[in-house]
Amino acid sequence: MPFFVCPGEGVVRPLEGLSAIAQLSVDELVREASECERLGISAVLLFGIPEEKDEEGSGAYDDDGIVQRALRALREHCPRLLLLTDVCLCEYTSHGHCGIIRDGEVDNDESLELIARTAVSHVEAGADAVCPSDMMDGRVGAVRSALDDAGLTHTPIVAYSAKYASAFYGPFREAAESAPSFGDRRGYQMDPANVREALREIALDVSEGADVVMVKPALPYLDVIRAARERFDLPIAAYNVSGEYAMVKASAARGWLDERQAALESLTAIKRAGADLVVTYWTKELATWL
């Protein structure tokens, strides 16, 4: 189950583009995660909205950052939950890109150090696994080396290995407040027309130490999930992204389709294509339906 954690106390900020999903302060996150735990949900994925943003995305690797505080609270109150964290700079940078900007471009290599530093900070605060989603070249190797150097050798990496430059992220960017202030992310996310590149990117992440590889989005890329399943032995994850969820929610609100049936059909398709793990905003509802 993905969660968006924000500063404050008693904050439940509904999101227009993601029906039934809200930004939550740490105390409200603990309450909601405890309910998820009671329903039998085994894992959550955390995204952070910092109090302030800057050019270097420093809130991402601040030991007292919003995700770090959330991890410590969840570790105390929800001991059975598996805690995963999104490792990226886009929610924390003032420009909204996933790396450091130099001369108007994302500097891949300079960004790696900060991404790896973020991963270590999350694990030291209580994360069970880290999920680098930035699509910088070499970031899985950088994260693995940093974790190992910090003595965190057993921490798994769930790599967003085939992350496409997709139109289906719109509601998420409202939720995470991470829309880029200029340009787009096509320089480091993948061309939707290209499946062979996805397999190359996955192979690189596997060689650098990824323990799980992810395809994102899921529904428009079922063929990529299937191709990855046939070629790689690692667990395959898929992210049923905000736009996929929002389309069904909006259609159901208009009475055009049955939400439960459409959601179950969509999630079954993702599993049928070969995903071992699915990240979806329907997780809580799914736990009650099943």
Mind summarizing the main beta sheet?
6 strands, mixed
Number of distinct helices: 10
Please give the number of β-strands: 12
CATH fold-level topology:
TIM Barrel
Q: Kindly report the average pLDDT value.
A: 92
Q: Order of helices and strands, N to C?
A: EEEHEHEEEHEHEHHEHEHHEH
Fraction of residues in β-strands: 15-25%
Topology summary:
Layout: E1 2-5, E2 12-15, E3 18-24, H1 26-39, E4 43-48, H2 66-77, E5 82-87, E6 100-102, E7 105-107, H3 108-125, E8 129-132, H4 139-149, E9 158-163, H5 170-176, H6 196-208, E10 212-216, H7 222-231, E11 236-240, H8 242-253, H9 259-273, E12 277-280, H10 283-289
Parallel strand pairs: 1-3, 1-4, 4-5, 5-8, 9-10, 10-11, 11-12
Antiparallel strand pairs: 2-3, 6-7
Helix pairs in contact: 1-2, 2-3, 3-4
Please describe what this structure looks like.
- The protein has 290 residues and is α/β, with parallel strands linked by helices.
- It has a single domain (2-289), classed as Alpha-Beta Barrel (TIM Barrel).
- The chain is built from ten helices and twelve strands.
- The chain has helices spanning 26-39, 66-77, 108-125, 139-149, 170-176, 196-208, 222-231, 242-253, 259-273, 283-289; strands at residues 2-5, 12-15, 18-24, 43-48, 82-87, 100-102, 105-107, 129-132, 158-163, 212-216, 236-240, 277-280.
- It has a six-stranded mixed sheet with strand order 2-3-1-4-5-8, with helices on both faces.
- The relative contact order is 0.12.
- The model has no long low-confidence stretch (mean pLDDT 92).
